[in-house]
Amino acid sequence: MTNPKYNYWLENLLRLCEKNLKKFDANLIRRAFMVAVDAHKSDLRASGEPYFLHPYEVALIVAEELPLDDISIASALLHDVVEDTPYELKDIRKDFGDEISDIVDGVTKITSVFESHEVAQVESYRKLLLSMVNDVRVIVVKFADRLHNMRTIEYLPIEKQKQVATETLEIYAPFAHRFGLARVKWELEDIAFKCLHLTEYNKIKRQLRSTSKEREHYIKNFIRDLNAKIEEVGFKFEVEGRPKSMYSIYRKMMKKNKPLDEGYEYNDILAVRIIIDTENPYDCFSVYGIVSVAFKPIDNLYKDYISKPKKNGYQSIHSTVIGPQGKMVEVQIRTRAMHEVAEKGVAAHWRYKENVASLDKELEDWVDWVRELFDHKLDEDSPKELMESFKLNLYQDEIYVFTPKGELKILPKGSTPIDFAYEIHSQVGNHTIGAKVNGRIVPLNSLLKSGDQVEIITSKNQTPNADWEQFAITHKAKTHLRRWIKEEQRKLSLEGREIWEKKLKRIRLHVNEDDLLNFVHAAKFDNITNFYIGVAKGEVNIDAFTDEIELKLHHPQPVESEKESIEKTSIFKQFVKTARSSLGGILVTGSNDMFLHNFAKCCNPVPGDEIVGFVTTGEGIKIHRKSCHNVERFFASNEDRIIEVSWPVTDDQIFIGGIRFSGDDRPAMLEDITHAISTYNNTNIRSVNIDSKGTMFDGWILLYVKNLDHLNQIINRVKKIRGIQAVERFEKM
Question: What is the pTM of this model?
């Protein structure tokens, strides 16, 4: 190169490589530099400067602020060549090899995916995310690219600025947080905040400027007092003031619903960081002891991220203390290596991994966590659901909860026992019937908090409830719940189709797919699959449905016997005709036949109850208990549709029954109740609902019983349990 300016830029980049990298191939950097200069020689940026300045500045960021290796820097120089110039990926692969070409390809794909705002090709998105965690250099180069674009955002049109800033706040900044890139996150947030909320930005800036001398003087004195205390112990350390980002101050003020022009509390902007030159993490606790003796700590504002690191590898002690003049100061304590990881995230992991074995394991665990977030059957989620789940996991803070054996589980803030159950194992989640938090029974939609000990109670007969998805928040829980729901719908659809086809075969009726779809739509079903599910669940009167199809298709009616003709003289006997031969039916007084029926959910009769039947127009005979409050209403308005019915003599049927109970909330209460039920005649439990109120609890259980005596025996067994105060039959379910 003959241009002195380009020669200066190259030598500057090589100096940074020598300063920040353990080793590097200078020739590789030179070749990438020259290819990038040649590829972009005719291009200009929005600022009017040569376009090459952008990849060059990105390479400087990777070399100085996020130093990884020479491969990353060469990739940064080349990251826009394939997208914006005649060069193709195969040219990069030929000249620079697979590693660099794969990184350049990954950075290009991330750009197109993030800027689409909606994931159009889910499978390609999945592959992108997985390849990204396979080589963290892809995301580091991309963040350097976005960081430089944000630093020069003022050259874009206003509307474009707002679009890029919104995208940065929604995706890039929280993503940087998950990768542990704290410095990148803060700068991205503050620049985007300025673009989107200039008035609020300027208010905070003015107030910070007006109090800057006072704050600097205070922090200087605080650090001086602290230095003297720590030096007495002999630690090598550094104490620095830590200014908080303007966007973080803005978010705190909005969260507190406090107007920006009211001023800021000192604990929102006063902070120091103690960085210890040691390889022993326990030295941080020794220094914390010194700090807590010198200044009174606020107990509920202490966080230990050393014993319990964040999933992105972040470690530090956080404590807020009462400093001189009664002002609150946030203190962070960490080792030098922890500080590198906190500031540079995966870049620090990469830099230290050859010398610090523990960081290898941390990086491996972190990559597994990111992979788990996205590595599932994506045909189960729509693109919109995938993006919502992706953003949710980026934004949420973490809580630390424990199993009964003391095993730590890290979950997003807002998680429930259902999320915890699926975090343990999918089968634990699928068979959950209840949960105890800190020894007390709680509803499954209860919010967990850090420090909780959670015990999941399971039953082999329990299956997921579709309502769980409304309060489950982790991607893992939602994925398994959707998977189970879709599998159940698939099974029901197959079962319904088999029932339907057997019915058509039995009555010798042929219906083509188009005609069936028309009839299904007329019956208010969205599609044939939902129709089959309705058939399987007994929500479709299949006999009435086929009769209607026969009539509309002018299907020839079978020759009727004289008896059948007479039966047509009454609505009820016509119904009896279509209901014949159903198995496990109800006996109608005066007939030996069993008829199509449904059990009323308002009273849920079981064998042994006195029952009556109510003839409906579309659901067969509805069976009620004689004591049901609805029966009196039926007698008043539709007495002619009330019929006498009785139970058939059978021992092989089961029915849904329920019990409601209340009592003293004590350890093992739910286990005692479920044990008393399940050990009597192998009774199966369908579902459990428990709610604690102070020292008391109440709830109900649905179970499968053979008859009224079976249900009464269960009630008597539960009554005998210590602490139970009341048990009764639960009718309305």
Answer: 0.56
